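INFO  loader      accepted 1 record
INFO  loader      residues=156
INFO  predictor   begin
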Amino acid sequence: KAHTNNSAGTVTLRSADPRDVPQIDFHYFDEGNDPKGEDLKSVVEGIKFVRQMTAPLIENGTIAEEELPGKQVQTDEQLADFVKNNAWGHHASCSCPIGDRAKGGVVNGDFEVHGTKGLRIVDASVFPKIPGFFIVSSVYMIGEKAADVISKAAIK
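INFO  predictor   done
INFO  writer      dumping tokens
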């Protein structure tokens, strides 16, 4: 689900060593902050929709079978359990949004971290909201904008 209601994920440094990868926890579904469970319901509905689309292809032999979640997983509850236990995300973003510090922003429009000197963030974390399904083009745009800002600052 590209536009999640959940914003409870965390990014935590493992150590002071910048080479250590951070601990990223998306806090999906039950542990997130989507009290109505709309994200989980949307993913379950997506599975059911794809099943409707592929049913004729399975019937005529174009597709041999559904591998995951598999035909043994049928009820909404079973599908929800499958999603909760198997879904993962790889578009981590929005943990250090551009914006006013008073409103939760971490960086300014020049990608400078509020309250620091000489530290900038230029990656998907600066988006206030996830930009969509294929975020790499938005990340490229952020990189181009930051390169322009930084090169102009270096000339001054």
